[in-house]
C-alpha cells in the first residue's frame, strides 16, 4: 500500500494495512517499531498548527522548569481532535495482543480489554480522568530527557509518537532515542530515523526479553536528542489517561 493511499484512508484502514506480525516481531526484538507514512504532510502540518490554539489543551508544560529538558508540550483536552481520537481508538486493539502477551511473559497479572473505550473506563474508575495525548514543540538547542510516561496505576505498555516536521527542512538534529537497561548490563541505545508522518511504536516502561532461563524484564526510556536548528513538532499518543 502506498503513502498516497494511506493519506486519504481513515486511520483504522491505514493501521490495518501494516504488517502487524512483522511489527510485533520488531517490538519483541527491539522494543520499538516504525510505521512509515502514517500521516500525510497535510495532516502533519494541520496538527502542528493546533499548538497555538489554547482551547484545544488542558495544560502546558515548559520542560526546563521541571528538569525534563528544554522545549515544551501541551496535553490535549477532551474532546480530542478527530484524527487523534481515531488513531488512539484504532491502534489500541491492534496492540492489545502484544501487550497481553508481554505481561504474561513477564509474570504480570494485568490483562487489557479488547476496546480502548473499556480500558479508558478502567482508568477513569481509578481516578485517571485527564487525557494524555499531547503535542511537543522544540526549537534550537531543545531536547527531551530520557523518561517514561507513567501517569497512575493503570499503564498501557505501548505508546505511539508521530513526527510532524520534516528533518533536513524544518529542523536538524532532534533524533528520537530509546534506551534499554538489562540487568547487570550497560544500557543499549536505539535511534529511530523518522521522517515527516512516520510513527514509532515503543515500550512505555518495561518489556520482556528471552534469556537462557526464561523471560526477564528490561527497563525502557525514551527521549529526543538536541535539536541543532529549526523547529520540531511531534504528536504523542498515550493510551492510558492521567490522575
Automatic annotation (TrEMBL):
User: PROSITE patterns annotated for this entry?
Assistant: FE2OG_OXY (PS51471)
Fe2OG dioxygenase domain spans which residues? 129-242
- Chain segments annotated as transmembrane: none
Record key words, sorted:
Iron, Metal-binding, Oxidoreductase
InterPro entries according to UniProt: DUF2086 (IPR018655), Oxoglu/Fe-dep_dioxygenase_dom (IPR005123)
Q: Which family does it belong to?
A: Belongs to the iron/ascorbate-dependent oxidoreductase family.
Please identify the protein, giving its name as recorded: Fe2OG dioxygenase domain-containing protein
- Give the originating organism: Rhodanobacter soli
Amino acid at each position: 500500500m502506498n503513502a498516497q493511499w494511506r493519506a486519504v484512508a481513515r486511520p483504522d484502514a491505514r493501521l490495518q494495512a501494516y504488517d502487524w506480525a512483522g511489527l510485533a516481531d520488531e517490538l519483541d526484538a527491539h522494543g520499538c517499531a516504525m510505521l512509515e507514512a502514517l500521516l500525510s504532510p497535510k495532516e502533519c502540518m494541520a496538527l502542528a498548527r493546533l499548538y497555538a490554539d489554547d482551547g484545544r489543551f488542558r495544560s502546558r508544560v515548559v520542560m526546563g522548569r521541571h528538569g525534563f529538558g528544554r522545549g515544551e508540550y501541551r496535553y490535549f483536552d477532551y474532546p480530542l481532535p478527530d484524527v487523534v481520537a481515531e488513531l488512539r481508538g484504532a491502534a489500541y486493539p491492534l496492540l492489545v495482543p502484544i501487550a497481553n502477551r508481554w505481561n504474561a511473559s513477564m509474570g504480570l497479572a494485568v490483562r487489557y480489554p479488547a476496546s480502548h473505550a473499556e480500558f479508558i473506563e478502567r482508568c477513569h474508575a481509578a481516578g485517571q480522568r485527564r487525557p494524555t495525548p499531547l503535542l511537543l514543540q522544540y526549537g534550537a538547542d531543545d531536547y527531551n530527557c530520557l523518561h517514561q510516561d507513567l501517569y497512575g496505576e493503570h499503564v498501557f505498555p505501548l505508546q505511539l509518537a508521530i513526527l510532524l516536521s520534516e528533518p533536513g527542512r524544518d529542523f536538524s538534529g532532534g533524533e528520537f532515542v530509546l534506551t534499554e537497561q538489562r540487568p547487570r548490563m550497560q544500557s543499549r541505545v536505539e535511534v529511530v530515523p523518522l521522517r515527516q508522518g512516520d510513527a514509532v511504536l515503543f515500550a512505555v516502561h518495561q518489556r520482556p526479553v528471552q534469556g537462557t532461563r526464561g523471560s526477564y524484564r528490561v527497563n525502557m526510556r525514551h527521549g529526543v536528542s538536541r535539536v541543532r536548528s529549526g523547529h520540531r513538532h511531534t504528536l504523542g499518543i498515550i493510551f492510558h489517561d492521567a490522575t
